[in-house]
Amino acid sequence: MNNPPTFAYRQRRIRQHEEMPRLRPSQVYRNGAIVAAGLLLIYILYSFLASDGPTSGGIRSAQPPKHSSKHLFLTIDKNRMDTRFEQLAPKRIFLWTPIFRSYDGPTVTDCPGLENRCIFDHDRSRLAAADAVLFHGPDLVDVGLPPPESRTRKQRYVFMTMEAPANTFVHYPAGLLQPNYFNWTMTPLFSSDVLFKYGGFWLTAKEAELKGFKMDSHALDPSSLTDKIPAVFALISNCATPSKREAALRALNRHFNVTIAGACATTPELKERCPKGTTCDEEISKYAFFFAGENTACTDYVSEKYWSRKELSTIPIVLRRADYANVNLPSQSVIALDDFESPAAMGKYLRDLVKDKAAYAEHFSWRRGGWTIAPWNTEGYRNGYCRLCERLWEEDQPEKVIPDVRGWYERESSCDDGSFVKNCLVFDFVCVCVWWLQCHENVIVALDEIASGGRTAGIAQIRQSSIDSEQRDDDE
């Protein structure tokens, strides 16, 4: 059993307690104030980092998207990057190649809701920190690929181009593109991992209304459709294209007037008609039609040839209608060469159209139908760098490797090698021959007359056939 403490022990404990320094009330208040000030400072610093808008030190915060509250992230000035912000930093997109020999241009500042979610960099000392590495196809031939050891598992290697395959892979040496190398594609194809197209997204009036978008106005003064030059205006600077569009224009010109301006024109005056650097919109609008055919006829490849002139008071003519299917063009807003069996049939349609003002005006009826282009890079209609940034933040994405990126792009693009135009020309030649024989049925009889010795009668029949043909042309 433990013995009870002695009287001397208790007295010693009492004296020790009395000798301990006592805390004065003023000290308690001061310590409490210090603790409160510390908590307030922590709160201010947190509010400073989590607030909207610019702040000192080159740091700007960004709110998470409405559909997610899992991420707190900061955009940090590239010159003030610090590893302590690694978990809070935006997605980093690294430019391994320049884009048409320049590293300037890529940005997300025009992406509503994404302005602070991604940054672009090309400092190779920071390659390992990148979330995505961007390879611009046309520039890759001059730069090559990075060494395998520089790659990390989290990175997405993205093959990017806005050019058609023929202009993307030009001058590529054998073996430049390694198999199973890229994770994502970023091209004008709607089947790409990241869509990177020209122009915007057409919506019907109903689609725009459901999205809550303000309707566009494409109103046109009816007087602008009168007194048009009855011809197709074509501004062409590439005179030998994969699509063979120049051959298509020559064939059409046999049946309907085509005016070619630019470098491919046949006269000095037409070569200078639209100087480089000018829009030429006023000149183009004088004509009933303008040629918007691409130098490469590929699925989804619709360049500024259409987009920059879609509002003009003239009808665009394109090569293959199917190439524009995903672009969702307003109905009757373009005329396609493959809408017709031959250039001859198309020429007849255009001749009839310029004579029938009501039918011509019908091709502009879409302007009254509420067709609208989705607001630039709004959610659901992101494009290019905005879509890339958005996709990098999407969660639960499966790993993906593209076995052959060149093969994929060429196959999905379904580019025409000129066969379409060649077939049109062959069909046109056959049609012309049949038409000529039908119109000149007397020629066969005349040739028989000449062969049998009735030369005078045969020549008379040929002359009469020519007169009959001219009269038929006048009637058309």
Automatic annotation (TrEMBL):
Origin: domain of life: Eukaryota
Cell location: Golgi apparatus, Golgi stack membrane
Class of this enzyme: transferase
Residue ranges occupied by any Fucosyltransferase C-terminal domain in the UniProt entry: 228-408
Gene source species: Pristionchus pacificus
Pathway: Protein modification; protein glycosylation
GO cellular component: Golgi cisterna membrane
EC annotation from Swiss-Prot or TrEMBL: 2.4.1.-
Keyword hit for Membrane: yes
Keywords: Glycoprotein, Glycosyltransferase, Golgi apparatus, Membrane, Signal-anchor, Transferase, Transmembrane, Transmembrane helix
Gene Ontology terms, MF aspect: alpha-(1->3)-fucosyltransferase activity
Domain Fucosyltransferase N-terminal: 90-199
Protein name as catalogued: Fucosyltransferase
Family (UniProt): Belongs to the glycosyltransferase 10 family.
Encoding gene, per UniProt annotation: WBGene00108694
Membrane topology: Single-pass type II membrane protein
Family annotation (Gene3D superfamilies): Glycosyl transferase family 10, C-terminal domain
InterPro entries linked: Glyco_tran_10_C (IPR055270), Glyco_tran_10_N (IPR031481), Glyco_trans_10 (IPR001503), GT10-like_C_sf (IPR038577)
Pfam families with a match to the protein in the record: Glyco_tran_10_N, Glyco_transf_10
Transmembrane annotation, as ranges: 28-49
